[in-house]
Amino acid sequence: xxxxxxxxxxxxxxxxxxxxxxxxxxxxxxxxxxxxxxxxxxxxxxxxxxxxxxxxxxxxxxxxxxxxxxxxxxxxxxxxxxxxxxxxxxxxxxxxxxxxxxxxxxxxxxxxxxxxxxxxxxxxxxxxxxxxxxxxxxxxxxxxxxxxxxxxxxxxxxxxxxxxxxxxxxxxxxxxxxxxxxxxxxxxxxxxxxxxxxxxxxxxxxxxxxxxxxxxxxxxxxxxxxxxxxxxxxxxxxxxxxxxxxxxxxxxxx
Length: 254
Description:
The chain is of the alpha/beta class. The chain has 10 helices and 7 strands.
C-alpha cells in the first residue's frame, strides 16, 4: 500500500513538473466590454482582469479572464493590461478597480468605478468595525449605506456629517516632548477625506446606468479568493508548480 502511494505521489509530482497550461488565445474582433481589475498575492503577484459584456440581462461575465504574473501590483501593470485589451480589438466602456494610488488619474481616458466594497474596507480598517466615538459611529453608518443608496442621498448624508463634525475633526493635540501639534482624530479625518477624494469615482455606475457597470469588483475577488483557497491546500509546492496550478485553475474555470 505504501509503495503504491509513493508511486502515485511521484507520478503527480512528475505531471506537475512538466505540465504546460493551454495558452489563452484571442481572435481580435470588436467587443464592447467592462473590465474588473484586481491583484492577489500568492508569494508573488497575480494581476488579473475579469471581462464583462452587455447581454439580454444586462452585464454578464465572459469566459475570458486576462492575467499576468507580476512582482508587485502597480499602475504600470494595469496600464499594460488595458493597452493589451485595446490593441486586441476590445472597446472598454468602464473599468472597476480598487484604490491603488495614482491609478484613477492614470486611467483618466476611461470611465473608472472605484470598488465600493474596497472603499468601505478602507473606512473600516481605520475606524474598526465597532468604533466608540459618536462621530466615528455615524460615519461608519453612512459608509455602510454606500452600496445601498443613491448618489445624491449619500453625498447629502456625508455633507451633513461634515458640517456637524468639522470642529471635532479640527481638534489638535500637543506633544509634550517636542511641542509640536497634530490632529487629535487623525484616523477619522483620514477616512472622511478619503471618501471626499474618491467621490468622483464611487458613482460612475450610477452616472452611466445604460452601461451596466458593476459597483464592485467582487466577481474578480471571488476568483482570486477561490484560487488562494485551493493553493493553501498545497502550501509546500515550489513556485513553478504553484504557477502551473494557477494557470490550470484559470484555464478550467475562467
